[in-house]
Design brief:
Elements lengths: L4 E5 L3 H18 L2 E9 L13 H26 L6 E8 L4 H9 L4 E5 L9 H12 L4 E4 L11 E6 L3 H11 L7 E6 L7 H16 L3 E6 L7 H12 L3 E5 L5 H7 L2 H8 L4 E4 L1
Parallel strand pairs: 1-2, 1-4, 2-3, 4-5, 6-7, 6-9, 7-8, 9-10
Antiparallel strand pairs: 5-10
Helix pairs in contact: 1-2, 3-4
């Protein structure tokens, strides 16, 4: 199987080119349909806040939302008007729903969702929380591209973070939808300090399954502590000349991730490469 429906989520003007560059690379390669999605959220006033909000605030907020939507639509059309693959622009307005909920609704019919990573210099964490929510709840693989992403290849040479968990299995098989005959997969076994023969056999079986699809496959084992997972994956991708990383996402509960931290969040903050997150 291969991807045929791509959902490109455009949340702001600054990262739109990065998302659309990635969408175009995949769509050309797989002759896929691209839906460019922008979600407009209403200005929420909570009943518990005892203050009057002047009408001018709502007016100016609405005006800014319209201007942003028009700019994003123009950017989308500029990228895709001359492409051979099909594309469509979709503007959704949220009333009681959040932007994440509207994105998740649209993601249900997509093979892959593309979003930009948070701006590393941003003062708020709103976008990072949005991306995390979509990864957790969409039920679809989410490809998160760097804020300033600009490359000429994507999904042809992939480093797959592997630890034999359910999420890692999903990531490995989601990656297969992006790979074609002759492409390269580097299966990197991480966070494993044991030498369990059963796990070794599973890793070898996975590599063999990739090779049967005519994918050039390597199996690499490394031992890194959790705080270094993002750095390890980025280092491996750089050394192997990969154009993407694929990992299982949020293998623990929300409470665990909040208190202990997660390798997923570490990668969202630090990756120099597009990362496919599967859950």
């Amino acid at each position: 199987m291969t991807i045929k429906t791509i959902l490109a989520c455009l949340t702001d003007v600054q990262s739109a080119d990065s998302v659309l560059n990635a969408a175009a690379l995949l769509a050309r390669r797989h002759n896929a349909h691209v839906t460019g999605l922008h979600t407009v959220e209403s200005l929420m006033v909570y009943p518990g806040i005892a203050m009057h909000v002047p009408d001018i605030v709502f007016t100016e907020y609405g005006k800014s939302q319209i201007e942003r939507s028009e700019t994003l639509k123009a950017t989308f059309e500029r990228h895709f008007h001359a492409e051979e693959f099909a594309s469509e622009w979709r503007l959704l307005k949220s009333q009681s729903e959040t932007a994440a909920e509207r994105i998740i609704e649209s993601a249900q019919s997509a093979d892959v969702v593309i979003m930009a990573a948070a701006d590393p210099d941003a003062e708020t964490h709103a976008h990072a929380r949005l991306v995390e929510t979509v990864i957790r709840d969409a039920g679809r693989p989410v490809l998160v591209v760097p804020w300033d992403y600009d490359a000429d290849a994507l999904g042809q040479s992939v480093v797959i973070g592997w630890n034999a968990t359910r999420e890692a299995v999903r990531a490995a098989h989601d990656t297969l939808t992006l790979l074609k005959d002759g492409d390269t997969a580097h299966i990197l076994r991480i966070n494993d300090h044991s030498k369990d023969a059963g796990t070794d056999a599973i890793s070898s079986d996975l590599a063999a399954a990739f090779a049967r699809r005519q994918i050039q496959t390597t199996l690499v084992e490394r031992c890194w502590e959790r705080p270094g997972v993002a750095a390890a994956l980025n280092k491996e991708a750089l050394e192997k000349g990969a154009d993407m990383i694929a990992v299982g996402a949020f293998g623990h509960s929300r409470t665990y991730d909040l208190v202990i931290g997660a390798a997923t969040r570490e990668l969202l903050r630090q990756s120099n490469f597009p990362v496919l997150f599967s859950r």
